[in-house]
Amino acid sequence: RTLKGLHDAWSGWLVVLLVGLAAGTCAGLIDIVTKWLTDVKLGTCSGKFWLNQESCCWNSHTAEPSGTGCSEWKTWATIFGVENTLIFASLAALLVKMFAPYACGSGIPEVKTILSGFIIRGYLGKWTLLIKSITAPLAVASNLSLGKEGPLVHIASCCGNIFAHLFPKYGKNEAKKREVLSAAAAAGVSVAFGAPVGGVLFSLEEVSYYFPMKTLWRSFFCALTAAFILRSINPFGNSHLVMFYVTYNKPWFLFELVPFALIGALGGLYGAAFIHANLAWCKFRKNSKLGNYPILEVVVVTFITAAASYPNPYTRIDASMMIAELVKECGPVMQNNLLVKISQRCQSFSNLALALLFKGIITVFTFGIKVPTGLFIPSMGVGAIMGRLIGVGVEQLVYNYPDCALWKTSCHAGHSCVTPGLYAMVGAAATLGGVTRMTVSLVVIMFELTGGLQYIVPLMAAAMFSKWVGDAFGNEGIYDGHIRLNGYPFLDNKEEFTHTTLATDVMRPRRGDQPLTVIEQEGMTVGDLEHLVRTTKYNGFPVITSHESQQLIGYLYRRDLILALGGQMARLNVIVETPINS
Amino acid sequence: RTLKGLHDAWSGWLVVLLVGLAAGTCAGLIDIVTKWLTDVKLGTCSGKFWLNQESCCWNSHTAEPSGTGCSEWKTWATIFGVENTLIFASLAALLVKMFAPYACGSGIPEVKTILSGFIIRGYLGKWTLLIKSITAPLAVASNLSLGKEGPLVHIASCCGNIFAHLFPKYGKNEAKKREVLSAAAAAGVSVAFGAPVGGVLFSLEEVSYYFPMKTLWRSFFCALTAAFILRSINPFGNSHLVMFYVTYNKPWFLFELVPFALIGALGGLYGAAFIHANLAWCKFRKNSKLGNYPILEVVVVTFITAAASYPNPYTRIDASMMIAELVKECGPVMQNNLLVKISQRCQSFSNLALALLFKGIITVFTFGIKVPTGLFIPSMGVGAIMGRLIGVGVEQLVYNYPDCALWKTSCHAGHSCVTPGLYAMVGAAATLGGVTRMTVSLVVIMFELTGGLQYIVPLMAAAMFSKWVGDAFGNEGIYDGHIRLNGYPFLDNKEEFTHTTLATDVMRPRRGDQPLTVIEQEGMTVGDLEHLVRTTKYNGFPVITSHESQQLIGYLYRRDLILALGGQMARLNVIVETPINS
Predict the structure, then answer these.
(1) Interface touch A457/B242, C-beta < 8 Å
(2) B457 touches chain A (CB under 8 A)
(3) Residue-level pLDDT at A336
(4) What pLDDT, on the 0 to 100 scale, is given for residue B251?
(5) Is pLDDT at A580 greater than 50 in this prediction?
């Protein structure tokens, strides 16, 4: 008995521990597979097909010093490298369509709806987990403008749902299960970005509906376990838990808050425009014939993306690699050395501007196609480019007009005192904030992502301006927009209502109405229930103790009642049909 | 009208901005004054009494290279340096007793009670703010085992209360005011530790009762503003926002989780013991004659602290300086070089052990005396010493038995692979967790405090074990203990109740009882109310619209009713007493 009490007390911690372990393992495997697929798209390791390019060339004597290849690594002969991306993308779309239609999209709107109390059967099941884990790397490797970070939240939630069923306390109680799911969502963001604290705050701010203190602790434990497992698997081969580790030599100055606020406002504008455009396109897809050809749509979008992104060096590489380059103090791609030749600088400037335009447009059409599509990395990519462009602009301005009163005291003439990489980081936060309308969790994720604790004020300024400007053009984030678009029953707990209506004014039945059709806890026969189902059309029935003391003890869906009646009927029929003298 | 609507919408942000500015400024001034007082205790700058030792010797040609003094700096002739500490401490106690009795203690239990809905008039007033801001530096400078971090939360809350009164929307509505106070508490921790995110989480986890999403955003904004202002004032003269900035060259290894868990468990044990001992002592003070001599008590505790701490180099210096030394990778105080002479190592080892014993005991008697007493720094100090001792022990173990299977793979023989400084950091988190029972906010504060993002797993392990072990010996933190001791009406929202009782079972009046004594919104005369007050003894009366529609619209305290009646009576009397033909 003591053992059972102990098990009951610890099962809450045990289940989140298991969820953390599973989420960390899934994320590690997905990262490894994604890296392998991205390389296999371009070539293969002769004799050892299971190695990616880096591992293949690790011990090779013919490895080129830049790490771009070796004799063991055979590159496929392709035109534009488009064929394999098409194969990957259509394979992903096929798998999703055949085995787990719920595996498409980012999953965050649905997880949010589930956490608000609505049940979508099978949405967090094993098949969704398996297919999403396989198709997310395929989708990323096919160079589409999407990320695997949103899907990781969905995958972690699936882990949470599956492990919750191992413990009757959590599996049989939807409210308790949601506590586990909140923790799992935190673990998902934790492994997606290596940001355990940010994950907990994301779950608190964006996903969860009801978040008591106990869930906060368990979420944190779950997120940390997951991050720790991911670090132990070490899929990127470097020991940093941090994705875009940056250290800038120069501090930021007060006058820079003006461009940071501007970046924030632009990020909010972009977010609002993106949400409107994406929702309009998704609505069009739903209401037109386009919705009947999901695989064709995926193939077309993949082809356009691949063809259009190939000529530009910034769009050709992986989006998270591009962000990592852009936030560097002095990235090799973007020469921010002031002495570099003008022609070269113009070249990379216009390349960046083109990449911004392309990424901004293609993401609208990508988010919503029938493969796993995350939105974090593409949004951050757009913002990083925008931020870097503005940063270079400010740098030039300060360099060319060193006597302006704004920065005269902070910057010494002839020195560059502006770090364009920081602007890219702020820009990434601004657009992500504009699209998702996160604030606190956004800032925490960004500084866990970059390790830049001292840049919290610029990040905060950008996040705030982004939210204010974004909210001015429409009060809902992309996830709320998709919830509304898909018609999920979601009651936003962030909305405020003025409490002037009395409960008696909205409650049914009113005086004179028929009494409610209810089910009593005891005393009703199968026949009574059958009669109830046959004579009414209600979607469900309140269950009360008795007509005398009308205490509500539950709610029974018509669907579930019919299922249960079916089973009873079958049993009754058997009894009746069996001859008495047999 | 548009302007008024805009003002209404923005006043929420404006008030937290102002609170943040005020809290940051207060914290900056307090830091500067504390530093000055700590130096003035030992000497003065000839001709420029307002300078502290560092500023005094800044431009001096006679400054000693170690920074310990210069010819301009005159040291007082004292015995044990005790006299000035006694003057400071008794001055602080006197000021508190004469002008603002609410300024004593840490203030966090009371702020917590206020945020749960209880009103303590004057607790967050101007006088409390002023006197606490003056006496906190005095108390710290008198070398008592206390910190100014807890009082800073109280001071920030005072700022919040005062600025809330500038806006009728917040000043006239207690519920709205509490939102501002939640944000102010976050700002308090933010400036105390330079930890904005930790501050918000502290407010969420430990202090606040009701924390909607909107308050989260505003708290974060407020905490950041305050941290930013503090950084601009730059009281410590270094540009790091971080108090104990550490960078370790060595990573931590998996086997070290065992000693970290041990440290966590010991921290939890210490916390439980401290809470019991301190509450017992405070109860004794309340119920015995000791409570009548608060100033004498302060003087005695100060004398004992000063006399006992002088011989030991670890207790002689300021507690936060000691912590900063202990968490360093290789602090000058504690030689962790393995080649240092045995006699010297034993010396510093026993000094540390003595400091641990002394600090652990004296803090029990210090927390609760009638000066501003913070508990964060003393608790962390005890933990840092404990952690460092265990860390040195583990280091020796690993060095002397390099072949043990546990660490053989991680550590190379002949090298030291254990960082005692990290153990000190973990120990500080463990004891602080044991005393306050924080978890998530504790870990976030610790890593914002030290900048050690990669040590989040050890910190978390220690925090979790600390909480589990501490909770096994008593479920309440020190703040909850003091709330209970002082008999504040606090309903803990972390407690869970099993919902089996029906509301009708506990509600009054029951069938057959007298109806409730209520006040109607309209139609009652002054005479009716006077009759009500005279004939009943209830502490307060529900206010309803009318006896027909018993809608509750408020609750009126007896005290407030009597006050209002008094005013009306006076006016009535004047009217009656004035002769008609005057």
Answers:
(1) no
(2) yes
(3) 45
(4) 76
(5) no
* Nearest CB neighbour to B217, from listed A213, A440, A444: A440
Give the Å distances, CA to CA, from B147 to A213, A225, B38, B136.
27, 33, 13, 8
- Interface A-B, measured as beta-carbon pairs within 8 A, has a size of 73
Q: Is A296 an 8 Å CB contact of chain B?
A: no
Say if residues B459 and B440 touch (Cβ distance below 8 Å). no
| Confidence tier at B263 by pLDDT (50, 70, 90) | very high
The two structure tokens encoding residue B244: 């104990």
Query: In angstroms, rounded to a whole number, what is the distance separating the alpha carbons of residues A356 and B215?
Result: 35
A-chain CB neighbours of B217 within 8 Å are 439-440
Q: Could you report the per-residue pLDDT of A165-200, keeping only the tens digit for each?
A: 988 888 888 888 899 999 999 999 999 888 888 898
Higher pLDDT, A429 or A549: A429
Closest A-chain CA to B456: A224
pTM of the model: 0.79
Contacts of A204 (CB under 8 A, 6+ apart): A211, A216, A219, A441, B216
Please count the other Cβ atoms lying within 10 Å of the Cβ belonging to residue B343. 7
What single-letter DSSP state applies at residue A116? T
Band (pLDDT 50/70/90 cuts) for residue A79 is low
Please name the residues in contact with B272: beta carbons below 8 A apart, sequence gap of 6 or more: B434, B469, B470, B472, B473, B474
Report ipTM (2 d.p.). Answer: 0.73
Contact A188, A198 (CB under 8 A): no
Is the Cβ–Cβ distance between B45 and B84 less than 8 Å? no
Kindly determine whether residue B494 and residue A214, on different chains, have CB atoms separated by under 8 Å: yes
First to last CA, chain A: 47
CB contact under 8 A, A453 and B457: no
Cβ of A241 within 8 Å of Cβ of B196? The answer is no
Determine phi and psi for B116, rounding to 5 degrees.
Answer: -85, 0
Average pLDDT over residues A79-84: 68
A257: pLDDT strictly greater than 70? yes
Residue type present at position A199 = G
Whether A460 sits inside 8 A of B220 (CB atoms) is yes
Q: Where are the alpha helices (DSSP H) in B401-502?
A: 405-408, 420-436, 440-450, 456-472, 478-485
**Are the C-beta atoms of B153 and B147 separated by less than 8 Å?**
no
> For A34-74, how does the pLDDT look when each residue is reduced to its tens digit (9 = 90+)?
888 888 877 777 777 777 777 777 666 665 555 556 777 77
Task: Give residue-wise pLDDT tens across range B148-178.
Answer: 888 999 999 999 999 999 888 888 888 888 9
Question: Cβ of A439 and B502 within 8 Å?
Answer: no
Contact B451 A456 (CB under 8 A): no
- Residue reference for tokens 């942000």: B13
The partner residue sitting opposite B213, judged by closest CB among A205, A217, A456, is A205
* Residue A557 bridge partners (DSSP): A540
CA-based nearest residue to A205, from B216, B104, B54: B216
Residues of chain A with Cβ-Cβ distance to B451 below 8 Å are 453
What was the pLDDT predicted at A65? 53
Higher-pLDDT residue of B241 and A48 is A48
| Residue B333 binned pLDDT confidence (cut-offs 50, 70, 90) | very low
Q: Is A98 on the interface with B (CB under 8 A)?
A: no
Element containing residue B544 per DSSP (H, E): strand B540-544
With CB atoms and an 8 Å threshold, state whether A213 touches B444. Answer: no
Cis check: omega of the bond before A311, within 30 degrees of 0: no
What whole-number distance in Å separates Cα of residue A491 and Cα of residue A501? 18
If one counts every other C-beta atom within 10 angstroms of the C-beta of residue B73, the result is 23
Write the secondary structure of B174-242 as one string of H (helix), E (strand) and C (coil). Answer: HHHHHHHHHHHHHHHHHHHHCCHHHHHHHHHHHHCCCCCHHHHHHHHHHHHHHHHHHHHHCCCCCCCCC
Residue A331 CA to residue A340 CA, distance in Å, equals: 13
